[in-house]
Specification:
This protein is α+β, with helices and mostly antiparallel strands and 169 residues long. The protein has two domains: 40 residues; 126 residues, Sandwich (Immunoglobulin-like), CATH 2.60.40. It contains three helices and eight strands. The strands form two sheets. Strands 3, 4, 5, 7 and 8 form a five-stranded antiparallel β-sheet that branches. Strands 1-2-6 form a three-stranded antiparallel β-sheet. Helix 1 packs across helix 2. The longest helix has 25 residues. The chain is elongated and about 85 Å long. The relative contact order is 0.19.
């Protein structure tokens, strides 16, 4: 028969190994990570606005206002957001530019935050988009597709999003 101390050590080691295995699986298996992310964090990402800020000789500056709402009971840190901006031309999505923000944004439990991201768009794609805007009578569809990376404790989760917004003059 085993002594109570040996039994306690055995159970403690078994629990520790199980916990380490669980963490390794969650960190390395995408479906497990997605499952845990859906259980821990629920967010809603919205593109509130896309504004033309400045037209230069070689590029155009566009501000994208993004809102992230944390509907879960845990606070999260937004580590990074990266996306690609497209415009619709004759029923096809044409890449316009990319945007990224890497500054940490802390979002409390059941709270939301909005922030602007400046985007530099090269001149040729912006001319095509402006021509499409003119050609469509002053309105154009934009699509923003990307991901946000949210951190809860030591875990970081990628949450993809895609939004389409019609903008007009």
């Amino acid at each position: 028969m085993r002594s109570p101390l040996k039994w306690l050590v055995f159970v403690s080691v078994a629990i520790l190994l199980s916990l380490c295995t669980f963490i390794l699986v969650v960190m390395n298996v995408p479906s497990a990570k997605t499952w845990l992310a859906n259980k821990l964090v629920t967010t809603d990402i919205e593109v509130e606005d896309i504004r033309l800020r400045e037209v230069r000789l070689t590029s155009v500056l566009v501000d994208v206002t993004v809102s992230v709402e944390n509907t879960s009971s845990l606070g999260v840190t937004l580590d990074r957001i990266a996306y690609v901006i497209y415009f619709e031309e004759d029923g096809e999505w044409v890449e316009l530019g990319e945007g990224e923000r890497t500054d940490d944004v802390i979002i409390g439990a059941r709270n939301s935050t909005s922030f602007d991201i400046a985007n530099k768009i090269e001149f040729v794609p912006s001319i095509r988009a402006l021509y499409q805007l003119y050609n469509q009578g002053g309105s154009i569809n934009f699509k923003i597709a990307g991901s946000v990376w949210l951190k809860v404790w030591a875990f970081s989760f990628e949450m993809p999003f895609e939004r389409i917004k019609k903008l007009g003059l």
